[in-house]
Design brief:
The complex is a heterodimer.
Chain A lengths: L12 E2 L6 H10 L4 E6 L2 H15 L6 E2 L4 H6 L2 H15 L3 E6 L1 H6 L3 H11 L7 E4 L8 H16 L6 E8 L5 H13 L3 E4 L25 H5 L4 E7 L9 H9 L3 E4 L5 H15 L5 H21 L3 E5 L2 H14 L2 E6 L7 H6 L9 E3 L4 H9 L5 E4 L4 H7 L3 E3 L17 H23 L8
Parallel strand pairs in A: 2-3, 2-4, 4-5, 6-7, 6-8, 8-9, 10-11, 10-13, 11-12, 13-14
Chain B lengths: L17 E3 L24 H9 L5 E6 L2 H5 L19 E2 L4 H6 L2 H15 L3 E6 L1 H6 L3 H12 L3 E4 L8 H13 L14 E5 L7 H12 L2 E4 L7 H5 L6 E5 L5 H11 L3 E4 L4 H15 L2 H29 L3 E6 L2 H13 L3 E7 L4 H10 L5 E4 L3 H10 L4 E4 L4 H6 L3 E4 L10 H16 L8 H11 L4
Parallel strand pairs in B: 2-3, 2-4, 4-5, 6-7, 6-8, 8-9, 10-11, 10-13, 11-12, 13-14
Antiparallel strand pairs in B: 1-12
Helix pairs in contact in B: 1-7, 4-6, 7-10, 8-12, 11-12, 12-17, 13-14
The chains are: A alpha/beta, B alpha/beta.
Bound molecules: iron/sulfur cluster (2 copies).
């Protein structure tokens, strides 16, 4: 039994290759210390988003909702907003609340600034900062929501002041908790103190508890976010976002913090660029330890290259991730025959075509759904699919092995611990990819070789 | 030292929704819109409609709205189909900014046109999500037009998320289905015939239940919501009895069918030994037919013969353990309390998202003194209750799971996403295995919460 093969149609999206904007915002807010994400709109959105995120992270993910009723939809959600915020403060004692708007609140045109103002006027003695981001889902995907929330945090909280030369802002985008931990390590070997925003490495991948925590420990502290205006530089990983959509350009404009915009550091070239940037900011050469990791990775590339030669892959997921994966695949000898994303930033294809090693035979589809993805690879099946769980149906029908990366990975455990970035993360991803191909070959062989 | 969990506050507005069984009669607040800002485990009206209609496998289910509502409900139920599987595709009009400004009717119409041409479904359901009402789309009109043009029923489901609760979504779904009932041919339907309502065929459960009834000599006309087919629903008014499981979701349809077609209904549950046996006996006694009654007895006897000894092993390990239950509908909670008791376990916390006053009264009567009964709870409260009552097991859905796991408490998934059949006699054995497998796992001895509670219990603080 497996679900029927869909056929792409023009006017409907069939099996979406994206999630909605507020989800991304909630994820970002979840990486701020003491923060409760709050969706202004109706109940269902927050519950569905929680459910979807729990499937991937397997951790408590509480997202409050102002829980619109019919009257709020008609007269505005001001009253629900106020009560909602009061209750979140009473129940969670948060140090910050991250408010994102759902499609409903956006459509009725609730004025969030006015509402926050009214809330403050009615509660002069509560000082919990409320950060607001506008996230109508009909204008983007979860990736846009994520970046918008990060930008809103910087916009509404960061402050200027004397430079702190060892501090660097790092906005990595939607990477895994394990990635965040590794990025911190990488910064630290350059003697850099990073403010990683968001940092859900503990909040969404924490240990077993002695007692229940209303808000999981960890996350970027308010103080650290405030200090972002004083950092020596900002690094953000994005290939597709416009400068008006992310935090680093804003910090550069407002506080003169130099912005470095890089591709996701997957693969040697991209990681080299990241390390060079760290080196440039810190004035330190790449430490021996890293050089050793890099050398091991090269060695692994060589050990594995024969298994990869001539292979093809279909890549799908968030635009930035797919750009990073495409670059990586080119680097190791896998030809991407399809690069697809449900995102529609307008810069996806350009970013992909920009990758110099890419040959002309790669099909690029933005604004894609899984019906289109399947149609694109049915007649010319690649050896591999690389992407998140929702592509499993396609991989199963077409009998193409799937390497799981991205969000969500909800049919395996350990999604939060998947590492992709830096030399070490690349190493792990490389091993997984090569082994998946070897396993497929081994299983398909009638001989049953024990050496491959 | 304070009791564990007491640092977790219950909001004032939520206090009337919590009852502790003692001398006081129960007077619980319920069936209300969730408190703003409390992290309710409920979803929305759309969710209610979507889960009920979802298993109708030969229809196109088109979610009219922005992408999230469809993306989060793609293939979410473990409802199996023995034939077409159209229900496992997720269709959305994926409204964009220009649609929100200029209206989405055109797009909806085109989408339906294309999807019906592409998949030749027996019907199409169009779900309205929150913003559809606001942008003024006349979904009814589009559906009427397509019904005429395409010659299949194109049925609007009025499921705007904010217009009530999940229960209202059940109503909307039932209304949509009811528009089909009575439009099919009832030839060949025997006097001893039933429809099975509210059984969603998770992991093939409806097939199992269907087989029980067929072995009894009762004809099953339609399973409506599990392995559902449009044509079966159309002729379901030919059955002489509706057998309704699940308290909230399908009662409206049963009532409408009673009113319009004079078909009586009975309420049953297929979870737990007693309940499933009663579900067979109640149907038998409705038909007052000796052969059917005899067959039902035979089935129950044969099934129990294998099952009861098998349960003993689990019971030995589980006796005295404490459980918390949080379900969507309250009816399932009743069955779970009884099923747990069969395994020697005591329910000390029980609640539901959508229970009514009578439901909670019954739940209270079923549970022992000191049990906490709760309506529309949230993670913080639930975490408090499971610590306070020191439960060994939590039964719920994926949203409740992390609460248990972070504290090192065993968990059993009894929600609509599960992949294991828990209904019927076989299901009881699976349930016992599931509970046992989690409760007796060796990993708990490492959990810090377990150490902390054990230590405080030894100091005489409970
Ligand atoms: S209404 Fe918008 S915010 Fe809510 S689930 Fe749908 S797409 Fe997401
Ligand atoms: S937008 Fe409305 S219908 Fe869709 S998930 Fe949110 S509350 Fe439910």
């Amino acid at each position: 039994m497996s679900a029927p093969k869909p056929t792409p149609v023009f006017s409907a999206t069939t099996n979406a290759c994206k999630a909605c904007t507020p989800l991304g915002a909630c994820l970002a807010f979840r990486g701020v210390e003491g923060c409760v994400p709050f969706l202004h709109g109706s109940q269902g959105c927050s519950t569905y988003i929680r459910r979807y995120m729990i499937g991937h992270y397997r951790e408590p993910i509480d997202i409050a909702s102002s829980n619109f009723s019919e009257s709020s939809a008609i007269f505005g959600g001001g009253e629900n907003f106020c009560t909602g915020i009061e209750n979140v403060i009473a129940q969670y004692d948060p140090s910050v609340i991250g408010v994102a708007t759902t499609c409903l609140a956006e459509t009725i045109g609730d004025d969030m600034n006015l509402m926050m103002h009214e809330y403050r006027a009615a509660h002069p003695d509560t000082s919990v900062p409320i950060v607001h981001v506008s996230t109508p889902s009909y204008t983007g995907t979860h990736a846009e929501g994520f970046h918008a929330a990060v930008r809103a945090l910087a916009d509404q909280l960061a402050e200027g002041g004397p430079r702190e030369p060892r501090c660097v802002n790092l906005m990595p985008g939607m990477v895994s908790p394990a990635d965040i931990r590794h990025l911190r390590e990488l910064c630290e070997v350059f003697d850099i103190q990073p403010t990683i925003l968001p940092d859900y490495s503990d909040t969404l991948d924490g240990g077993s508890w002695r007692e229940y925590h209303r808000i999981p420990e960890g996350g970027t502290s308010l103080a650290a976010i405030r200090a972002m205006g004083r950092a020596a530089g900002s690094i953000e990983f994005t290939s597709v976002c416009d400068e008006s959509a992310t935090a680093a350009p804003l910090l550069s404009e407002r506080f003169d913090v130099t912005a470095h915009r890089l591709d996701l550091p997957i693969g040697i070239d991209a990681t080299d660029q990241f390390c060079q940037t760290l080196s440039q900011i810190s004035g330190r050469a790449t430490p021996k330890r890293l050089a050793a990791e890099r050398a091991r990775l090269i060695d692994a590339y060589i050990d594995g290259h024969k298994y990869l030669s001539g292979t093809t892959a279909a890549l799908y997921g968030e635009e930035d991730l797919v750009v990073g994966l495409t670059r990586f695949c080119c680097e190791i000898g896998i030809t991407p025959v399809l690069c697809a994303s449900g995102g529609n930033s307008g810069n996806f294809e350009t970013s992909i075509r920009h990758i110099s090693e890419l040959t002309g035979n790669t099909q690029v589809i933005a604004n894609a759904d899984f019906a289109e993805i399947e149609a694109a690879i049915t007649d010319n099946k690649p050896d591999l699919m690389i992407g998140y769980t929702r592509g499993y149906a396609v991989s199963r029908r077409l009998d193409i092995p799937l390497v799981r990366v991205g969000f969500p990975v909800s049919d395996r455990i350990g999604a939060a611990r998947l590492l992709h970035v830096g030399y070490r993360g690349t190493q792990q991803l490389f091993d997984r990819i090569v082994n998946t191909l070897i396993e497929a070959k081994q299983d398909a062989s009638p001989v049953g070789y024990m050496t491959m | 030292m304070t009791m564990p969990g007491h640092n977790l506050p219950i909001l004032d507005a939520r206090k009337p929704h919590v009852h502790t069984k003692g001398d006081q009669p129960i007077n619980i607040a319920c069936e209300k819109h969730s408190v703003a800002g409390s992290v309710s485990q409920r979803a929305c009206v759309f969710c209610g409609s979507r889960v009920v209609l979802y298993p109708i496998a030969d229809a196109v289910h088109l979610v009219h709205g922005p992408i999230g509502c469809a993306a989060y409900t793609w293939d979410i139920r473990g409802s199996l189909s023995s034939g077409p599987e159209l229900h496992r595709l997720s269709f959305s009009t994926d409204l964009r900014e220009k649609d929100v400004i200029y209206g989405g009717e055109k797009k909806l119409e085109q989408a339906l046109d294309e999807l019906i041409a592409q998949y030749s479904p027996k019907a199409a359901f169009v779900y309205s999500t929150c913003i559809v009402g606001l942008i003024g789309d006349d979904v009814e009109a589009v559906c009427r037009k397509l019904t005429e043009a395409k010659g299949i029923p194109v049925i609007p489901v009025h499921s705007e998320g904010f217009k009530g609760t999940k229960k209202d979504g059940y109503h909307a779904a039932c209304a949509a289905m009811f528009s089909l009932v009575g439009t099919g041919d009832t030839a060949g339907i025997k006097p001893h015939s039933i429809n099975i309502l509210g059984e969603f065929n998770l992991a093939g459960e409806a097939w199992m239940i269907r087989r029980y009834y067929e072995r009894m000599g009762v004809q099953v006309v339609s399973t409506i919501t599990g392995d559902g087919r449009i044509d079966d629903i159309r002729r379901s008014h030919g059955a002489t009895l509706n057998v309704v499981q699940c308290s909230g979701s399908m009662m409206p349809l049963a009532k409408m069918m009673q009113e319009q077609y004079g078909i009586p209904f009975i309420r049953v549950s297929y979870f737990g030994v007693e309940d499933v046996a009663n579900a067979l006996y109640d149907v038998a006694s409705h038909f007052k037919d000796q052969a059917i009654t005899h067959n039902a007895q035979q089935i129950v006897r044969a099934e129990l013969e294998g099952l009861l000894p098998a349960l003993t092993r689990f019971r030995n390990d589980l006796t005295g353990k404490r459980a918390a239950i949080y379900t969507g509908g309250a009816f399932k909670a009743f069955s779970l309390v009884r099923a747990l008791r069969k395994l020697g376990m005591q329910t000390v916390v029980a609640g539901s998202q959508t229970g009514g006053r009578e439901d909670y009264e019954q739940l209270r009567n079923l549970c022992d003194d000191g049990a906490i009964i709760v309506d529309d709870t949230n993670p913080v409260e639930l975490a408090r209750f499971v610590q306070e009552r020191q439960v060994d097991l939590l039964i719920g859905g994926v949203k409740e799971r992390p609460i248990a796991y972070k504290l090192g408490i065993a968990f059993c998934d009894h929600n609509h996403e599960r992949k294991i059949a828990l209904a019927g006699f076989e299901g009881m054995l699976n349930f016992a295995k599931e509970v046992h497998g989690s409760v007796t796992s060796p990993v708990w001895r490492f959990a810090p919460y377990r150490h902390a509670t054990e230590a405080s219990n030894q100091r005489g603080i409970a």
